[in-house]
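Re: beginner question about structure tokens

> Can someone show what the tokenized structure looks like for a real chain? I only ever see the sequence side.

Sure, here's an example I had lying around. Input first:
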Amino acid sequence: MAHPGYDPSIPVDPRVEALVNEVIGRVADKWTMLVLEELEQGGELRFTQIGKRVPGISQKMLTQTLRQMERDGLLVRTVYPVVPPRVEYRLTPLGNTLSEAFCGVWMWAENNLDAIEAARAAFDGRAAG
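And the corresponding structure tokens:
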């Protein structure tokens, strides 16, 4: 995929290409996007709060998603030394920039919803006929 400033005569760093492919694959995962959105809106949230705000996510999937986001530097996990231990998650500056990038996707979806629905209806009509 070409990006602004792309110059085909300059070789692409394979590490950058691999990272882009990984991030797109992970972020395109609906759970990461939904957790990202909830942390953007809610600020610092506890595990159970995130689970309640992301409908349909299992505890196992939430744990995996949060760990991967932490590994990628998108969020920070803070354990407070109280009994029982309190654990909270918040986006890092890196996570905030990714959230801002997705804002563009949301705006694109809002701006093009009618056109996409019309295209789907036309396609489905042709496929059924």
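Each token stands for a local structural state, so reading them left to right follows the chain. The mean pLDDT is 86.
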